[in-house]
Specification:
The structure is a single chain. By secondary structure, the protein is an alpha/beta fold. The chain has 2 domains: about 170 residues, 3-Layer(aba) Sandwich (Rossmann fold); about 180 residues, Rossmann fold (3-Layer(aba) Sandwich). It has 15 helices and 13 strands. A 7-stranded parallel β-sheet has the order 3-2-1-4-5-6-7, with helices on both faces. It has a 6-stranded parallel β-sheet with strand order 10-9-8-11-12-13, with helices on both faces. Helix 11 links the parallel strand 11 and strand 12. Helix 1 crosses helix 15, helix 3 packs across helix 4 and helix 6 crosses helix 10. The protein is globular.
Length: about 375
């Protein structure tokens, strides 16, 4: 009897790394049910909670990121990196994976470095239109690199590249059929438009502030709002809204029922993280993207421009969002022709089989 196939998936730090990793794990299990998957994350980061919630075992490394500004925390980085590599070696020796997958984020570097040193085949999945530091460092050491955007040979060896797209949660595959369920869940009026605002799991200050400042403009026009504030901003915004009529506002710290939120929304306001964009393509929603300026090499603007150039989304820059975002949203929500055009074009960019395609490449490395 053949022994069980063992795979380590490593990375995390944000939902943009964690949810694709879980989607890849789920796809691996669909293709081969005799498989054991171990996740390796960074201690204290959100993967340590989200991965067990998805039904997988996870082990944490003491790794942290390098701060881009001069700070004392950077002095401890070499020690944390060294101890993370030592712990990664121990995990690999005990678990004995046949293949490892890195999805970016802090833990991905030490784990894949230790695995490739031990001769274990490895694949990395780069979600963005700009390559992350850990993935660039690992590029020469791994066998395959799955990417979501064209022209990634600027960062990686061309012969290793596979254009797979970004994996998204399988429950987003048919959101249109769940509209009635979504209307009931969010207690919304089916006759009035809905704007969905998502700023990532931690929240987006500029987007939140833009909505807050112009909230009356939205609610007085009869538009309903599903607003994910992110955990950093939820309590403060909740307090600021307490004296307002909130009958048309559904305020959420974090949206678990994302498929229902997409199902009922007429337009979406979002940051331009790779995962958000992959989801918007799949659910074919007209979107206004507000790229975060606080990310490496301004990669969210690059992600967003890939859509804007195809007439598949609108872009409002972070610096002018306070004046322009809600105004543009109100114009778009009432423009049926523009909404249809954006919806049609963004749908053309979807890659619904990304998770399965990446999982197949992972399994090909086990020989």
């Amino acid at each position: 009897m053949a022994s069980k196939l063992k795979v380590i998936i490593s990375g995390g730090g944000t939902g943009g790394h964690i949810y694709p990793a879980i989607a890849i794990a789920n796809a691996l299990q669909r293709i081969n049910d005799d498989i054991e998957i171990l996740f390796v994350g960074a201690e204290g980061r959100m993967e340590m909670q989200k991965v067990p919630e998805a039904g997988y075992k996870i082990v944490g490394l003491p790794i942290t990121g390098i701060q881009r500004r001069l700070t004392l925390k950077n002095l401890t980085f070499p020690f944390k990196l060294w101890s993370s590599i030592q712990k990664a070696k121990k995990i690999i020796k005990e678990f004995q994976p046949q293949v490892v997958v890195g999805v970016g984020g802090f833990a991905s570097g030490p784990l894949l470095y230790a695995a490739t040193k031990a001769g274990i085949p490895a694949l990395i999945q780069e979600q963005n239109g700009y390559a992350g530091l850990a993935n660039k460092w690992l590029a020469d050491k791994v066998q395959k690199i799955c990417v979501a955007y064209e022209n990634m040979d600027r960062y990686f060896p061309r012969e290793k590249l596979i254009l797979s797209g970004n994996p998204v949660r399988s429950d987003l595959m048919n959101t249109a059929a769940r509209k009635q369920e979504g209307l009931a869940f969010y207690r919304l009026d089916p006759e009035r438009p809905v704007i969905l605002v998502i700023g990532g799991s931690l929240g987006a200050r500029t987007i939140n502030q833009s909505i807050l400042t112009n909230l009356e403009l939205i609610t007085e026009s009869g538009v309903q709002l599903i607003w994910q504030t992110g955990k950093f901003y939820y309590e403060d915004i909740k307090k600021q809204l307490q004296d307002m009529d909130q009958s048309d506002i559904r305020l959420c710290e974090f949206i678990k029922e994302m498929s229902l939120a997409y199902a009922v929304s007429d337009i979406v306001i979002s940051r331009a993280g790779a995962l958000s964009i992959a989801e918007l393509c799949l659910v074919q929603k007209p979107a206004i993207l507000v790229p975060s300026p606080n990310v490496a090499e301004d990669h969210q603007t690059k992600n967003a421009m890939a859509l804007v150039e195809q007439q598949a989304a609108m872009l409002v820059r972070d610096a002018v969002a306070g004046d322009e975002l809600v105004k543009k949203a109100m114009e778009l929500v009432g423009d049926q022709q523009r909404k249809s055009e954006l919806s049609r074009n963004i749908g053309k960019m979807a890659r619904p089989d990304a998770a399965d395609d990446i999982a197949s490449e992972v399994l090909k490395l086990v020989s």
